[in-house]
Amino acid sequence: MYRHHSNFPTHNLSNHLLNQSSFNHSANEHLPFVNPSHVTNFVPLGQGNNNFPTSQNNEQAPSSPPPQYIPQQQTSSGLTAVDPRTIAGCLYRFTYIWMRGGNSFWFYPVYVGRRSVSGYRWTGRNWIYAGYSLRRIISFHCH
Q1: Are 143 and 8 in contact (CB under 8 A)?
Q2: Residue 106: how many CB atoms within 10 A of its CB?
Q3: Per-domain residue ranges for the chain?
Q4: Dihedral of CA 28/112/63/3: which sign?
Q5: Which end of the chain has fewer CB atoms surrounding its CB within 10 Å, N or C?
Q6: Reduced 3-state DSSP string for the chain
Q7: How many other C-beta atoms lie within 10 A of the C-beta of residue 136?
């Protein structure tokens, strides 16, 4: 389901919940990457049981920075996970993601699995390849 804010679609995730019992994640699946104070819940590629691709599959990072604005967050209480079908509509598009724990950032998804999404995360200077559990995403906005 899309709600329009300005000219950009925003996803209403309340209608696209996954049952939390369908996830079987281990405790060590959410390992910090590089600097735990800046990036949380990152799962290094090839580790864990999240079905992340083990390589970048020759996908290219975006050649430009993301938009300079931060979209307004649309939240719904009681979310357990993002439905992969909803975030799949953001493949190869600049997407702003809000994570559990308060982190938010621009992301460029290139892969969506049943329980994970991977792609390029904007650091403020460049794009880095990263993967995240869909359970850790509160909401997102495609540009």
Answers
A1: yes
A2: 23
A3: 1-22+80-143
A4: negative
A5: N
A6: CEEEECCEEEECHHHCECCHHHCCCCHHHCCCCCCCCCCCCECCCCCCCCCCCCCCCCCCCCCCCCCCCCCCCCCCCCCCCECHHHHHHHCCCCEEEEECCCCEEEEEEEEECCCEEEEEEECCCCEEEEEEEHHHEEEEEEC
A7: 21
Q: Which is nearest to 73 in space by CA: 92, 97, 90, 94?
A: 97
Q: Are 128 and 65 in contact (CB under 8 A)?
A: no
pTM, entire model: 0.62
Under CATH, which number does the domain 1-22+80-143 receive?
A: 2.30.30.100
Mean pLDDT of the chain: 72
Give pLDDT, residue 99: 96
Per the CB < 8 A criterion, the answer to whether 133 and 25 are in contact is yes
Q: Is the separation of the CB atoms in 113 and 123 below 8 Å?
A: no
Average pLDDT over residues 31-51: 41
Q: Which tokens go with 141? A: 């906005």
d(C-alpha 107, C-alpha 113), whole Å: 16
